[in-house]
Amino acid sequence: MKTILITLVTLITFSLSAQKKETYIYSIKGKDTLRMDVFTPKNIKKSDSLPVLLWMHGGGFSGSHRAYPDDTNLVKYAAEKQNYIGVSIDYRLLRKNKTTGFGCDCTKDEKMETFKQAAIDYLDAAKFLVERAQMLQIDPTKIIAGGSSAGAEGILNAVYMKDYFVTDKNAYISVSFAGVFSCAGAVVDARYITKENAVPTVLYHGTEDRLVPFANASHHYCNPKKDGYIMLDGSEIIANQLEKFDTAYSFNIVKGGGHEIARIPFEDLEKVFRFFEQTMLNKQVIQTKIIRTK
């Protein structure tokens, strides 16, 4: 699918109590015009170059949007309370209005293509930011990839399986990620997490999630005889890989929790950003597992 990157276009600008918002078109792909909302601290100095939270919403690759209240509140929080640039993006909802959805009747090939294109959309958004780092006052070496549910799958595959999904290795040579914030996500194959690409990672997952596996299991727990049978590696397998490479992680386990753990943990955000301050900014290696009961 041909991608046309658009020259920077500011669509909306308005002031909030402690941050400003601008909306940009970062790509046009077929009938999809993909936008991002960029929240900047209101008191930003001209000399500042700030870390970024680049957020990808959930919705089963078929619904929701970048401006959903929870997603917007998260990136606003990043700008207002943490002195980050907070960014929430659109991406192609390739399973929207599909009769087979994204469950066990959606074929493995369709699922893999959906994962691939979501990862590519995310990488295109990151590339857009990196190429305009000076104007947007971002530090391109300090981008945290974040997402929930389908968005978490998209960002995890973009960060850790770029070499698998991307054919043109030079296309995103300027893009790197300094951290990961995943709420109920999984990768296609955690063996693609290596010492070279492992970064400080915050993981939230429920042990009884029946949509996105907590450990190694089939997506949606589909029967092997179903078209949509595909094995995924969830947060537990990801954390094990990071531990093996002495990479910082904070693994938040909810015993008995289901896919509702994909929600953004607003009550923990101060701790989440403190973790990134310690690990991404101060280079500490912290490995913790926090176990809660639903």
TrEMBL record:
Residues 36-153 form the BD-FAE-like domain. Gene3D superfamilies: alpha/beta hydrolase. Residues 1-20 form the signal peptide. It comes from the Bacteria. Pfam families: BD-FAE. The keyword Signal applies. InterPro entries: AB_hydrolase_fold, BD-FAE-like_dom, GDXG_lipolytic_enzyme. This is Putative lipase/esterase.
